[in-house]
Write a structure and sequence with these properties.
Blueprint (H helix, E strand, L loop, with lengths): L1 H37 L1 H7 L6 H24 L2 H4 L4 H8 L2 H27 L1 H11 L7 H21 L2 H28 L1
Length: 194
């Protein structure tokens, strides 16, 4: 039993390192691509009023819509179609609330800067959404999960089109990951207490 727990902890530690490392690499690539292919001045100019009420309304509203979409899916789609092999539950339940907050900020920042800020800006919403879905490679063999991620990506991409604001889509992505992560963490912990 102790050996199994030890291997599981090492596995979770490696998983955390892998997720942090991947997100930092995506962030670095996003910064380099925006700098070289768009230019930081042009990128900032392209953003509509960065800190505006519209930014927060669309960002928070978009996050709420995606969270409700996922809740609806959990009540309407059989669980076996939504199962990612236990990765998300294993990962999010291993994080403290502080770690989850930091990680969800990093994920939303790196992925939105790269997929919306660079790929969508240079190549359009369709390519950005498809690449976004493919990068979540563990869903490629799970058709329902893949379609869900693709739809969420199109939604976030459309939000970027109408707001022209990277902060709005960052907020949306953060809320989606954070609320669902907290839900997984606390629902699993309450199940274990019973």
């Amino acid at each position: 039993m102790e050996n199994e727990l030890s291997r599981q902890n090492i596995s979770i530690k490696n998983l955390k390192k892998s997720v942090y490392g991947t997100q930092l690499i995506i962030l670095l690539i996003a910064i380099i691509c925006i700098g070289f292919f768009i230019g930081f001045d042009d990128f900032v100019e392209e953003q509509s009023t960065f800190l505006s009420l519209k930014t927060f309304i669309f960002g928070i509203g978009g996050g709420i819509v995606l969270v409700l979409f996922n809740v609806l899916l959990n009540y309407t789609v059989p669980e076996r179609f939504l199962d990612d092999g236990g990765f998300n539950k294993k990962f999010f339940t291993s994080l403290s609330v502080f770690e989850m907050t930091i990680l969800c900020v990093l994920i939303a920042l790196s992925e939105e800067l790269f997929f919306r800020g660079f790929v969508q800006t240079k190549f359009g919403i369709i390519l950005a959404s498809i690449i976004f879905a493919l990068v979540h490679f563990r869903y490629v063999k799970k058709p329902v999960l893949f379609v869900i991620v693709l739809l969420e990506s199109f939604f976030i991409g459309y939000l970027y089109l109408i707001t022209e604001n990277i902060l709005a889509v960052f907020i949306t992505h953060f809320i989606l990951d954070y609320v669902l992560g907290l839900y997984m963490k606390f629902s699993l912990e309450s199940e274990e207490e019973k």
